[in-house]
Amino acid sequence: MTDTILIVDDQRSMCELLEADLKLRGYAPIAVTSAAAAWEQLQQHDVDVVLTDVRMPGTGGIDLCRQINEERPEIPVIVMTAFGSIETAVAALRAGAYDFITKPVEMDLLAAALERALKQRRLQKEVRQLSETIDHRTSFGEIVGESPAMLKLYGQLTQIAPTDSSVLITGESGTGKELVARSIHRRSRRASGPFVAVNCSAIPEALLESELFGHRKGAFTDARQERTGLFVNAHGGTLFLDEIGELPLSMQAKLLRALEERCVRPVGSDQEVAIDVRLVSATNRDLDTAIEAQQFREDLFYRINVIQIELPALRSRGNDILLLAHHYLTQFATAAGKTVTGFDTSAAERLLSYPWPGNVRELRNVMERAVALSTGTVLTRDDLPEKIRRHSAKQLILHGDDPTALMTLEEVERRYLLHVFEACHQNRTQAAEVLGLDRKTLYRKLKQYGVDET
Questions:
Q1: Which residue has the higher pLDDT, 344 or 167?
Q2: Which band of pLDDT confidence, cut at 50, 70 and 90, is reported for residue 410?
Q3: Mean pLDDT, all residues of the chain
Q4: Domain residue limits, the chain
């Protein structure tokens, strides 16, 4: 089957030159002169590699690369530019580019880059097909797991996704809240609409209103041109507000008004803009406690918390740890072109005994590091970070000079709380008295640490 190469360059002469050469080399090139036209082609054709210029009117090649990497990560992107520099190369790679070449293009070098990209594309297809045949019982889209907690989650998502109700996703940092939000969107009636994600804690308070609602030109000192807010960008689709618990109180009031009236008023405008979005929010904060401390509005909480999904911590998911580890190992080995196929029992034992305070995000990072540094076909205990190799599943180390042997305050709390709970023979009232907690707080923490109410 002929490989399809999508060429994106605003210069028609360059498109024609590349088309002619790639046809002679046996490829099936498609040439367009803008990022918008490229995205249309990606919806219509099964493209194997995208070859894009950097400097183009409107959306440039870096932004196109970023968009493809987010929405179609299986398609490798090669970026080409006449303005070759380290800064441009770094920007392209950070945007998810597979490779980077400079103009004038040497066709033999381009052909070699295309073959490398196509090899990766074929490997990814094989892995995906294998995953689809093996993991259909252990995954839900991109979410991987077969523990009782995850099977329960899959059932919840199946019921929730087709509705238009607001969803609040809770759970510890790194448990995959954005992945769940995207899964809800993809299975909803809004799947053909946009999915817009924003981390509320990453935007300075002074810019939040403009980011969410937009602004008119001249609304404030740096407003040199009109800006469409994220609510309007998400019109017809899903808006995902991550870390919503970090919103300042003044912004919470404006968000509540926008949700209730289903319209936004851009900064500097006296006109309101109607919006049609489904809101999915996420937080790792205890919003009940934040409400009691008057740090979060109770009325906004009820507005965003129509349906709540609590994601389990990785340490409470049992053998899902190994399932996820193998999933990421395969993913990173394929991307790196390595023949790492699994891990031995010593590595598996260490992975299972470690408490994973950073949850799935930390596991992903560990597997990426292990694959990158591995020299064999199977990962061993020695390929894992020292803190995982040296972790003691039972000994609580409170003193010592080796930072790698010490643990986080959260892990100390988890172990001590569970120890007291077991010492009290799982009597919640007695455990709460020993710990000096009210029962509601104890129940919440036990649930957080994977102990279900009986």
A1: 167
A2: confident
A3: 85
A4: 4-132, 146-310, 314-389, 408-448
Peptide bond between residue 76 and the one before it cis (omega within 30 degrees of 0): no
- Among 198, 193, 141, smallest CA distance to 164 is for 193
For the record, the structure tokens of 281 come out as: 């929010």
Q: Output the pTM of the full model.
A: 0.58
Looking only at Cα atoms, what is the longest distance across the chain? Answer: 79
Q: Fold for domain 314-389?
A: Helicase, Ruva Protein; domain 3 (1.10.8)
Helical (H) or strand (E) element with 124:
helix 107-134
> What is the C-alpha to C-alpha distance for residues 329 and 131, in angstroms, rounded to an integer?
13
Annotate 134-184 with DSSP letters as a single string. Answer: HGGGTEETTEE--SHHHHHHHHHHHHHTTS---EEEE-STTS-HHHHHHHH
Q: At what angle do helices 107-134 and 12-24 cross, to 10 degrees?
A: 70
| DSSP one-letter code for 424 | T
Contact assessment for residue 331 and residue 126, using Cβ atoms and an 8 Å cutoff: no
- Bigger pLDDT: 89 vs 284: 284
Per CATH, the architecture of 408-448 is what? Orthogonal Bundle (1.10)
Separation in Å, CA 95 to CA 42, 64, 88, 339: 18, 9, 11, 26
Q: Are strands 214-215 and 227-228 parallel, antiparallel or unpaired?
A: antiparallel
Say which CATH topology domain 4-132 has.
Rossmann fold (3.40.50)
